[in-house]
Write a structure and sequence with these properties.
CATH superfamily of the largest domain: Response regulator
Mean pLDDT: 82
Helix content: 25-40%
CATH topology of the largest domain: Rossmann fold
Strand order of the largest sheet: 2-1-3-4-5
Low-confidence stretches: 122-138, 189-196
GO molecular function: phosphorelay response regulator activity; transcription cis-regulatory region binding
CATH class of the largest domain: Alpha Beta
Main location: cytoplasm
Number of helices: 8
Protein name: Response regulator transcription factor
GO biological process, one term: regulation of DNA-templated transcription
Structural class: alpha/beta
Pfam families: Response_reg (PF00072), Trans_reg_C (PF00486)
Radius of gyration: 19 Å
Number of strands: 11
Length: about 230
């Protein structure tokens, strides 16, 4: 089973470093830099654990934890440069499950994550996600824009550049209906002529790679007379 981590950290370099480390350890990681983005992504990504900074733009980390706790008991690890006892106690009282002070070792971060997952009776990854085998029907699609990779059931799927760009746009906007022209504009811009007669071919190829039954699509739906949309 591949564990999904939602990382909320406004320091981009630190977020990139943590995300890269976790992905090397076999986790599926989505990272955002703002609380608003986290709240939007949370129900779609459905993480197994949340790692969030205390000090965030737009919303305090404690308020974000409180928002998550309105709907979920997902394990939450708070990270912060603050070493004040009151900050740690407030985070824990507010619903965080653990608190880690910056700077920290990435190996300690991994150990804290695994400890929280054990407490939640969720198995954690011993091998990279690419070695996992997909289930046949209870699938999950995830797009990692940082590594430009597409996962189905935690297994990395090989896609072309254009297929990834199409999937990225659909995945970013679940439920939105894209016309073929909109997809072409977003993917190739001024080079859209290259795609004029092939957008349907790329969609067909994507379906073969991510759908349990490509003839009866579960994720990429055709909206007849208009275009396509992504359904979670």
């Amino acid at each position: 089973m591949s564990i999904k981590v939602l990382l909320i950290e406004d320091e981009k370099n630190l977020a990139d470093m943590i995300a890269f480390f976790l992905e090397e350890e076999g986790y599926i990681t989505e990272r955002v830099h703002h609380a608003r983005e986290a709240l939007q992504l949370f129900p779609r990504f459905q993480p197994d654990i949340v790692v969030t900074d205390l000090m965030l733009p737009e919303m305090d980390g404690n308020d974000l934890v409180d928002a998550f706790r309105q709907h979920s008991t997902v394990p939450i690890l708070m990270i912060s440069a603050s070493t004040m006892l009151n900050d740690r106690l407030r985070a824990l009282h507010n619903g965080a499950d653990d608190f880690l002070c910056k700077p920290f070792s990435l190996k300690e971060l991994d150990a804290r994550i695994k400890a929280l997952l054990r407490r939640s009776a969720i198995s954690y990854p011993d091998k990279p996600a690419k070695e996992d085998k997909p289930s046949e029907d209870t699938g999950h699609v995830s797009v990692n824009e940082y590594r430009r990779t597409l996962f189905v059931n935690g297994v990395e799927i090989e896609v072309t550049h254009i297929e990834f760009e199409i999937m990225k746009e659909l995945y970013r906007n679940p439920g939105k209906v894209f016309t073929r022209n909109e997809l072409m504009d977003r993917i190739k811009g001024s080079e859209r002529a290259y795609l004029d007669r092939t957008i349907d071919v790329h969609i067909s190829s994507l379906r073969k790679k991510i759908e349990p039954d490509p003839k009866n699509p579960r994720y990429i739906k055709t909206v007849w007379g208009t275009g396509y949309k992504y359904v979670m």
